[in-house]
Amino acid sequence: MADLSVSIGSLKLKTPVFLAAGPLTTRLENLVKAQEMGVGAVDTKACVSVNYPKTKCYNRIFWDARTGMLNWMLGSWGGEFLFIDEAVDFIKRAKKELTIPVFGNFKGQSDQAGEWVELAGRLEDAGADALVTFFTFLRDFQGREKEMMEKIIGPVCSRVKIPVIFKLPPEAGLAAHGPDLVRAMEAVGLAAVQISDGLGGFPGLDVNRPPYHPFDGLEFQGRDGFISGPFLKPLVYKSVYEFAAMTRLPIICSGGIWDPRSAVEAILYGAALVASSSGPCLKGWGMFTEIIRGIENYMDEHGLASIQDFRGLAGRYIRENDRIDYPGCRAEVDEEKCVGCGECLIPAHCRAISLNGGRAEVDPALCLGCCLCKYLCPVGAIAIKTA
Predict the structure, then answer these.
(1) Do 240 and 216 reside in the same domain of the chain?
(2) Ranges 118-132, 220-234, 349-363, most confident
(3) Which of 7, 37, 220, 327 could form a disulfide with 75 if both were Cys (CB 3.0 to 4.6 A apart)?
(4) 0.85 cut: is pTM over it?
């Protein structure tokens, strides 16, 4: 039986999947439901020291199934941060109901360590098993991330005895300051790094209904929202890989992880844990059970005893210049499967494929080995073979 347990500092989770902070983590019944689905831990909505007036609806969502993009939290959503008093009460109630770890999530509103330390201390005193914090995805202190890590997060880690997790945006691994930031994270005593979904962006429009609002005439004001969904995975995977290659700190992947395969892929790229906040909003609570069972089945099929046994294995195929290494290859057509539909003739760059006698045919001398025809073939008649 595969061991799915993982550790964040001194804290042990029974499975490598947890419910990330978001709209779902403001209600206790949602945390209970996530526990029933088998998650290893639950986060809570970020809290602040400012008691914002609550908004009626902050989580207006736009889903584009064509691209796998979920654009949510459009509009003015600052009022949905928990006030620190609310967060303290919420964590106390959650600890009475749950048997799995509960994370406290917070964000200071200034560059003064005292505010951050006070928030962290109150969440720990309320019973939080770990803390998650962030710099509004680095925009607050752009260019000063290393300084702020030492000035703010260092004192936080010194104040509390529980693990502290720092959350970064999906593009973080691409930043030039990455190595310096990682060294600062390790020096201040962080327990883990979380790669999250935090890209801003506008949704598509109803172009047939002027003045072109995305929600049948409903306006959104104040913010462009956050983008999540499967389309983010390539960006998230790269950041996970880059950070995992730079540090021994556990990496948490929580951008676009909506199914078992993406969870396994994230671990293969270097993640120790995976999380989701937006996924259950579209796929339901059963998504977590599906992911956990999928990871367990994958491990059993490949004879893997622990998450560590396959964490980061994809790195062996990536050279120092971060280009994926692959052998020469070419497309081959199974004549018995081919129906002569011509879909493989679509790519504008390809000169290798033609139809001959109602079947696709590949000229190996002209084949670039790009693999696109394989994905276009609707009947699976094309395979990529090593040249």
Answers:
(1) yes
(2) 118-132
(3) 220
(4) yes
